[in-house]
Amino acid sequence: MNYNINEENFVGNIYQRFPVSIKKGKGCTLWDIDGKEYIDCMGGYGVALVGHCNDRVINAIKKQAEQLITCHISLYNDTRLDFLNKLFTIAPTNLNKVFFANSGAESVEAAIKFSRKYTKKTGIIALNGAYHGKTFGALSVTYNEKYRKSFLPLLDDVYFVSYSDSEKIEELVNGPNNKIGTIIVEPIQGETGIIVPPVDFLKKIRSICDKHGLVLIFDEIQSGLGRTGKMWAGQHWDIKPDIMCLAKGIAGGIPMGLTLLRSEILDCIKVGEHSSTFAGNPLACAAGSATIDSLVEDKLVENSEKIGKMFKEGLLDLKDTHKIIREIRGFGMMMGIEMKFDIKDILFDGIKSGILLLYSGRNILRLLPPLVMDEDITKKAINLIDKLLYNEEKRRNV
Ligand SMILES: *Cc1c(COP(=O)(O)O)cnc(C)c1O
What we know:
alpha/beta; Aspartate Aminotransferase, domain 1; binds pyridoxal-5'-phosphate
C-alpha cells in the first residue's frame, strides 16, 4: 500500500514534502517502507536529538504508558517532579522556574507574554533572519517575509535589527518614547542557515539588557541540549539569558516545549493568566527524563562536540575540491553548507543515494544529525555528500 498518495488528500500542500515513506528508525539510521536504508542528517528537524528510538526513551515511554498517560498539572505527579529535578541539573543556574508547553512556538508565546507582563513594556527587538515559530506571537518575531506577509497585522512594536548590529539595538533602547522591554535571540540561527553571531555580539546584547533592565530571551529550541557541542549554545560565549525556550528534542520525539525563566519573571504571572491542557503530561515528562539521562550518562554532548568536529573537518576538505561550496558553518552537530546554487536537486539526489539532508534557505544544506552518530557513519555521510556534490557539478557542468 502506498500511504503517500493518500496523505496528501488530507493534509493538503502546506509542507514541502519528499518522495519517501519512512517506516522505521534506530539511532541515526532510517528505513523506508521498502527496507531501503538512509543516514539521517535531517534528524527530524532536530527532534531526533538522542537518536531514533533511543532505548532509554522507549523503556520510559513503555513503563509510563502502563502507569499513567495523562495528568493535568492541577494535580501533582511524581514523574513530572522527577523530570523537573533532572531538568534543573542541566539548566543554566540563573533559571529556576519553568512553564510547560507542547511545542517550540508555544514556548516562545509564553516567553513573550511573560516578559511583557514583567517589564510592563510592549516593544520587542528581534533579529534579521530570526525564526521563532509560526503562531501569531512567534510569527511576529520571525523575520522571513514569506511566512509573514499573508497574515498581517502581527504584534505591534517589534523591531528587527541586523544579526551583528548592537549599536542599532542600543539606539532603539535609548530612543524617544522607548517601548522596548525584551530582546529575543537565537544564539545560533538555525532555519536561516546556521548563522553564528560575531564574537562579542551576545555579550553586548547581555550588557544592554543589564544596563536597561530588559529581558533577554534565548530561543535554544534548535541549538540547545548539546546540539552545538555544549549543553547550551549560549555557553560558547559564556552568556546566560533571562528566559530560555526549548522544544524539539527535549522529550525524545514526544511533543514538549519548555519556557525556562528567572524566578521573578514567572512569579509575576497570576493563577489562570496562562495555561496549557497538556502541560507537563506524564508521558512527555517520562520521555524527557530519559532524554536528559541519555544526554548526560551516554555523554552525547561530548559526542556532539567530537563527532561534530570530525564532520566539519570532512566538510571543509570537501570545500577544497568542490568549488560550488561557498562556506561551511556551525558548531557540533548543527552544520550548514552554503552553496552557490539552489540545493533542491542535491536533496532529491540524497534521497536516491541514501542520505537525508535539510534545506535552510534555498541554497544552504543544513545538517542536524542525532547526537549519537559515530565515526563510521560520519565517514559514510561525508563520502555520500562528496558524491552528491560531484553529481551536482556534473548536472550544472561546472
Ligand atoms: C523549530 C523552531 C521553532 C518552532 O518550533 P515548533 O515546535 O515548530 O513550533 C522556534 N524556534 C526555533 C529556533 C526553532 O528551530
